Amino acid sequence: MSETAATNVHAGVLEEQFESLQTQHEARKLGMWIFLATEVMFFGGVFTCYTLYREMYLPGFEQGSHLLEVTWGALNTGVLILSSLTMALAVRSAQVGLRKLITIGLLLMTMLLGVAFLAIKFILEWHHDYVEHLVPGINFSYTGPYSAHVQLFFCFYFFLTGLHALHLIIGIGILAVLCVMAWRGRFSPQYYSSLEVAGLYWHFVDIIWIFLFPLLYLIGGR
Amino acid sequence: MQGQHIVPVRIYVTVFAALIALAALTTGLAYVHMGIWNTVVALAIAIAKMLLVALFFMHMRYDKGLTRVVIIAGLMWLTIMIVLTASDEFTRHWSPIPSNWGPAISMQQKQ
After folding, report:
1. Shortest distance, CA B96 to any CA of chain A (angstroms)
2. A-chain residues within 8 Å CB-CB of B43?
3. Confidence (pTM)
4. Do A201 and A110 form a contact (C-beta atoms < 8 A)?
5. What is the full per-residue pLDDT of chain A (222 aa) written as tens digits?
6. Under DSSP, is residue A145 helix (H, G, I), strand (E, B) or coil?
7. N or C end: fewer C-beta atoms under 10 angstroms in chain B?
8. How far apart are alpha carbons A48 and A38 in whole angstroms?
């Protein structure tokens, strides 16, 4: 082990199995990407199911899709894209060694946008669906044609958006931990892999929504 | 840290603007009736947005071999799952069921 590596291990930033901070950084990123690859399959399974059932029960699924409010979905897309920008800038701020308050500010802004997304999703959309009696298993009572297929669409809708929201809640929790770490001065241009890795996760959750929005709200036209 | 690419703020903001523009475009196009093309266009725009996020925000553009292999492997598995499942499901009605196989329960009757 080189002298720098020994100092880094001593400083608590380098785990001793790694040769250098750079190898450690690459290893952590790779670990997150492997996890994200499993997440692709996790969401992909539901996406595949959705595709098949949509093909089987197309009229019902289109009807269900038309019961969703595009404005809220589009607004939420904008909110998440903006949160991805602030996240990327937060990682960059540590990378180039800006003051820790800038990193914390950008992280807080990202969290706030995440909370805004959830507020739009739960308070406006889900609540509206509940009032309209569109929640399968709780109060589904849509009586139009293909109502059974519309119900299946809403099962997918709540399952997919619920899973996505769960990921977002976990992401907000991770960012809260990072805020504390940043406050304690843990990050520097030499050591910011926790931020980078959390950023990968956050952007991945954004990508999931980038697909959910057209799949649930848009495809087939309005 | 050596070997870590620092992306200029200008690029991040440009990518953000492009993503917002694509989101607005896909929302607007949903109201134009194009038949099957509505779905094709919406998915194509989603894939373009995914690439922008992955390449720039997730730094894939600056990543080295191993990370790229993992990403491409992930997408490959997804493609295998979707393509193989769909190729079975969507082609079942292409050929008639031979009459000497006994009473047929086709997908349509089950529904």
Report:
1. 19
2. 214, 219
3. 0.92
4. no
5. 577 888 888 788 898 889 899 999 999 999 999 999 999 999 999 999 999 999 999 999 999 999 999 999 999 999 999 999 999 999 999 999 999 999 999 999 999 999 999 999 999 999 999 999 999 999 999 998 999 999 999 999 999 999 999 999 999 999 999 999 999 999 999 999 999 999 999 999 999 999 999 999 999 888
6. coil
7. C
8. 15
